[in-house]
Amino acid sequence: MKDFRNLKVWEKSHRLTLEIYEITRLFPKEELYGLTSQLRRASSSIPTNIAEGCGRGSDADFKRFLQIAFGSASETEYLLLLSKDLKYSDLSKIETLKIDIEEIKKMLSSLIYKLNVKG
Fold first, then answer.
1. How wide is the angle at C-alpha 94 spanned by C-alphas 104 and 76, nearest 5°?
2. Which residues, in sequence order, are CB contacts of 65 under 8 Å at separation 6+?
3. Of 43, 88, 108, 114, which has the fewest Cβ atoms less than 10 A away?
4. Residues ≥6 apart with Cβ < 8 Å to 61
């Protein structure tokens, strides 16, 4: 069992989620149960799955949860693109978050690769 708080990818994805919550506070109220909720759920799923995978007993389980986290990162990336195209948020903020997501995806890929080589 690993402590998820010691993983840089968990820390970075947690910070991303906090920033997503911050920017979605300014989204239109009619999006509260639509894009706002979906973006918050997708972003929070990244660190949640990393944490859950750390609590599992095997590297195979951990890898599976990292793959789910990677999928959630891709979903978050698209939803930010949609938010940008709908002009719901500042373009520079969205671009910064996009760079963060790309880095998180690289970190997850690297960790998954290491588990593949190890296993």
1. 50
2. 49, 50, 52, 53, 56
3. 114
4. 53
pLDDT band at 90 (very low <50, low <70, confident <90, very high): confident
pTM tops 0.70, yes or no: yes
The tally of domains found in the chain comes to 1
| Domain span holding position 38 | 4-118
Mean pLDDT (whole number) for 101-108: 98
CATH code assigned at 68: 1.20.1440.60
CB 104 within 8 A of CB 16: yes
